[in-house]
């Protein structure tokens, strides 16, 4: 009997020791073009119940910023843990290793320490992946991104252009993807479209990991919505009453801002059903309706992943990150369906982090966070050796104490018309400095306390002259003056 008790005690001790030593998994969820318009961010209109549940389990970062408000450079910066000033990539087209061939990325760091790393959907930009980051090749759904109306329009356009000898590239209205309408409600199941199929594949991966828990995983799941075109199953459109959707109150360009800095991108006007000139109010409401439906579609897929984590018990040993690659404008400053600048609305993103042992579940923090911080944060949370190539700072002190501070500023870059702008988001100010060879520096300053949407540039006000010089010195001490160098002409690997 004593022998049985001893053996049982030894077995329990081994099991407890094994559980204690078990490394945490990482489920990294990315959304495309999702600004912080969720219930957990205080938005009363959007329906995001599942992301709100994740927020109650984890921590919401109210002031999280990407390092460039454009899909591929933002993702490359986050996944590399380096600022765009280091990667040298400010555009869609070149992969990371075109400029940094020997780099070790965030998922690669995990792979090098025994993790099974996998990418599903849009993590790096579509067509611009990084083979060394993943244990197996990145997976992309074969299900359609578009609904039947959009697919028919794109196919008809393809045949017409083929007959005319026009290649399916470019941003002219009616070419390639831009033959699609900007929005469409589709009478279908979630899994009939790309994002639902991506969630289904992620669920299969999670179940497989639950059956074979010995090897920890870093699973990255990227959803294409709510990037325009806003295409989602009809049931998500039915969550909203279009007539009651609030429109932007600041439909004017930032006052006093340099003209080149506020020039809009031409992506959105190129979609097939976008009227020329000023958009009529009914069309604006349709756009906002589609955008919110797309958010709710993504939210439902996140809910499916959370349910599987709970069902399999993986939730107890998995760090969850929900991240978006930048903000988005939906009428503010007259901009629709775009980012492409250095202002608050473009650079501020969603960031929710949940760990199995959250000391402050459901908390929100105003600590400044950057996408480059995710590398050191996940490395520390999972107990991996530090990676000295990461340029951000671990956010674990903030997870331990929402009032803590690890960054005194967050930085973002954007090239415009030969200028390179670097934005410095501080506690109460947003400062932007633009440089161009042969031109004097151009500066912008926005009071984030009284002007959170950056409506008025006050850099030229005499009472702010000293502050502007102080911020300029501070910025250039951190990042020496840079000039924008146009990238070599390359074939773009995917649509914007």
Alpha-carbon Rg, integer: 23 Å
The CATH class name reads: Alpha Beta
**Which strand order do you get reading across the main beta sheet?**
4-6-1-8-12-2-13
CATH superfamily: Alkaline Phosphatase, subunit A
**Separation of termini?**
70 Å
Please report the number of helical segments: 13
Estimate the strand proportion. Answer: 15-25%
Q: Do you know the CATH architecture?
A: 3-Layer(aba) Sandwich
- The overall strand count is 18
In the residues, how many domains can be counted? 1
Percentage of residues assigned to helices:
25-40%
Q: Could you describe the largest sheet, including whether it forms a barrel?
A: 7 strands, mixed
Mean pLDDT level: 92
Report on this structure.
With 496 residues, the chain is an alpha/beta fold. Helices cover 30% and strands 18% of the residues. The chain has one domain (22-408): Alkaline Phosphatase, subunit A. The protein has helices at 2-21, 49-57, 71-80, 84-87, 106-111, 148-164, 194-211, 234-237, 281-312, 344-347, 374-381, 396-400, 465-478, and strands at residues 25-31, 59-61, 64-65, 116-121, 183-186, 217-223, 230-233, 318-324, 329-330, 336-338, 348-349, 351-354, 363-365, 369-370, 410-416, 419-425, 429-436, 439-447. The protein has a seven-stranded mixed beta sheet with strand order 4-6-1-8-12-2-13. Strands 15-16-17-18 form a four-stranded antiparallel beta sheet, covered by helices on one side. β16 (419-425) and β17 form a beta hairpin. α2 (49-57) packs across α9 and α7 (194-211) packs parallel to α9 (281-312). The radius of gyration is 23 Å and the shape is globular. Residues 1-20 and 490-496 have low confidence and may be disordered.
């Amino acid at each position: 009997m004593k022998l049985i008790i001893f053996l049982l005690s030894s077995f329990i001790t081994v099991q407890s020791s094994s559980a204690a030593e078990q490394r945490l998994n990482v489920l990294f969820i990315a959304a495309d073009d999702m600004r912080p318009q969720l219930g957990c961010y205080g938005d009363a209109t959007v329906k995001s119940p599942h992301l709100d549940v994740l927020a109650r389990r984890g921590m919401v970062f109210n002031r999280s910023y990407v390092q460039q408000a454009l899909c591929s450079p933002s993702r490359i910066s986050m996944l590399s843990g380096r600022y765009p000033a280091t990667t040298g990539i400010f555009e869609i087209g070149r992969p990371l290793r075109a400029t940094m061939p020997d780099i070790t990325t965030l998922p690669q760091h995990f792979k090098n320490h025994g993790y099974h790393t996998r990418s599903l959907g849009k993590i790096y930009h579509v067509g611009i992946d990084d083979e060394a980051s993943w244990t197996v090749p990145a997976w992309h759904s074969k299900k359609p991104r578009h609904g039947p109306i959009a697919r028919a329009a794109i196919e008809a356009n393809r045949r017409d252009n083929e007959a005319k000898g026009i290649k399916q590239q470019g941003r002219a209205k009616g070419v390639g993807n831009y033959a699609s309408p900007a929005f469409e409600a589709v009478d279908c199941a979630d899994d009939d479209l790309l994002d639902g199929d991506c969630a289904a594949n992620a669920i299969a991966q999670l179940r497989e990991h639950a059956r074979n828990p010995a090897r920890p995983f870093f699973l990255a799941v990227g959803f294409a919505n709510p990037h325009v075109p806003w295409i989602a199953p009809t049931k998500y459109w039915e969550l909203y009453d279009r007539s009651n959707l609030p429109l932007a109150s600041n439909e004017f360009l930032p006052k006093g801002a340099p003209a080149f800095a506020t020039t809009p991108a031409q992506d959105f006007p190129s979609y097939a059903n976008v009227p020329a000139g000023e958009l009529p109010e009914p069309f604006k409401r349709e756009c906002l309706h589609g955008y919110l439906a797309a958010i709710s579609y993504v939210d439902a897929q996140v809910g499916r992943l959370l349910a599987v984590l709970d069902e399999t018990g993986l939730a107890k040993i998995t760090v969850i990150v929900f991240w978006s690659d930048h903000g988005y404008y939906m009428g503010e400053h007259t901009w629709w369906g775009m980012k492409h600048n250095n202002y608050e609305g473009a650079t501020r993103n969603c960031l929710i982090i949940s760990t199995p042992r959250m000391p402050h579940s459901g908390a929100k923090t105003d600590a400044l966070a950057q996408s480059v911080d995710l590398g050191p944060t996940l490395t520390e949370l999972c107990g991996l050796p530090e990676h000295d190539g990461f340029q951000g700072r671990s956010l674990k002190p903030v997870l331990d104490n929402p009032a803590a501070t690890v960054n005194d500023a967050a930085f973002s870059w954007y090239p415009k018309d030969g200028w390179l702008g670097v934005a410095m988001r501080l506690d109460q100010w947003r400062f932007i400095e633009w440089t161009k060879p042969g031109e004097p520096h151009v500066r912008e300053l926005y009071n984030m306390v009284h002007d959170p949407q950056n409506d008025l540039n006050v850099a030229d006000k005499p009472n702010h002259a000293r502050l502007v010089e102080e911020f300029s010195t501070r910025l250039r001490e951190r990042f020496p003056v840079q000039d924008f160098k146009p990238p070599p002409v390359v074939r773009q690997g995917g649509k914007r």
